[in-house]
Amino acid sequence: MTIADEELAEQRASVDRIKAPSRLRVVMGRLLRSGRGRTGFTLLVLIFLLAFAGPYLTRWTYVSKDFTAFMAPPSTEHWWGTLQTGADVYAVTLRGLQRSLIVGLLAAVVGTALAAVVGAFAGYFGGWTDRGLTWLTDLLLVLPAFLILAIMSPLFVGGQWPVFVLVLALFLWMVTSKIVRSMTISLREREFIHAARFMGVPPTRIIFRHVIPNMSSLLVVDATLNVSAAILTETSLSYFGFGIQPPDVSLGSLIADGARTALYAPWTFWFCAGLLIVTVLAVNLVGDSLRDAFDPTSHRGG
């Protein structure tokens, strides 16, 4: 190897060592440098640990009944007290938290994915495709989502909560879809999209490989904020008996049951209500901080 080759190899090695950090690492660094981001992320981690690891810390399950302790206050035997049925509040509340988190996450991911696909196809193809998908979007925007979900609630009986997730996701994507459509109309005129067309790349491949990935920051933030929207919607529906159906439970159904006894047995209400407030707060803090991390110019302090 000549001296020139050795120098070239050293230059390549030095370039590799000082390679620019990935976008994900930059975004996570900005997120964790933000006070709101650290607080929200820490709360979310603790909530997930409590929901999915917490049930293993007690011998009671959400279907267990203690017929010697009805409406008992918190004690060493029942950490968060019991309900009118003798069910352990700690076990039942964590089961409800699990279900609300799963419903919120799945509905947010499905809704955001649907928004990305519909908006990208409408904006890229234009013409009748754009008109048809825009008409569908506008139609769903004016439909009363709460009423439709309430009417369809009999479909959610017997552990059919995945059906509830899909129906809920159908009413979460429309506004984001319109934003994606506008961004796609701008993106399709960019040079790299024209180059892909001239190379004969199929339109669907261009959409999924070039258009949608260029909107990842918008979609990540939207999915995060949709989690809290989905959790609140599920809680509202379950509160009125239209969401997660017995024998399963969610935070909404527990809050509805606990509201009747909140004055003289506050432990039946405030544990589940408090977890709902903390969960939604944590998700919103993370969502706002992610938005600032992807777009530092929108940062307003904190």
Q: How would you sum up this structure, described in words?
A:
It is a single chain. By secondary structure, this protein is mainly α. The chain has 13 helices and no strands. It has helices at 3-17, 23-33, 35-53, 89-125, 127-142, 145-151, 161-169, 174-187, 191-198, 203-211, 216-239, 251-259, 267-294. Helix 3 (35-53) packs across helix 13 (267-294), helix 4 (89-125) crosses helix 7 and helix 12 packs antiparallel against helix 13 (267-294). The relative contact order is 0.14. The chain crosses the membrane at residues 40-58, 101-127, 139-157, 163-180, 264-286. It is found in: Cell inner membrane; Cell membrane. This is ABC transporter permease. It is a multi-pass membrane protein. Its main location: membrane.
Highlighted features:
302 residues, mainly alpha, elongated, transmembrane, transport, BP-dependent_transpt_permease, cell inner membrane, transmembrane helix
- pLDDT < 50 runs, ≥5 residues: 3-9, 13-20
- N-to-C terminal Cα separation, in Å? 55 Å
- Compute the CA-based radius of gyration: 24 Å
Assembly annotation: single chain
Beta fraction: under 5%
Describe the biggest sheet?
none
Q: Judging from the principal axes of the Cα atoms, what is the shape?
A: elongated
Helix segment tally: 13
Helix content: 55-70%
Number of strands: 0
What are the secondary-structure elements, in order, as H or E? HHHHHHHHHHHHH
Overall pLDDT, averaged? 84
**Computed structural class:** mainly alpha
Protein name: ABC transporter permease
Subcellular location: Cell inner membrane; Cell membrane
Keywords: Cell inner membrane, Cell membrane, Membrane, Transmembrane, Transmembrane helix, Transport
Organism: Streptosporangium oxazolinicum
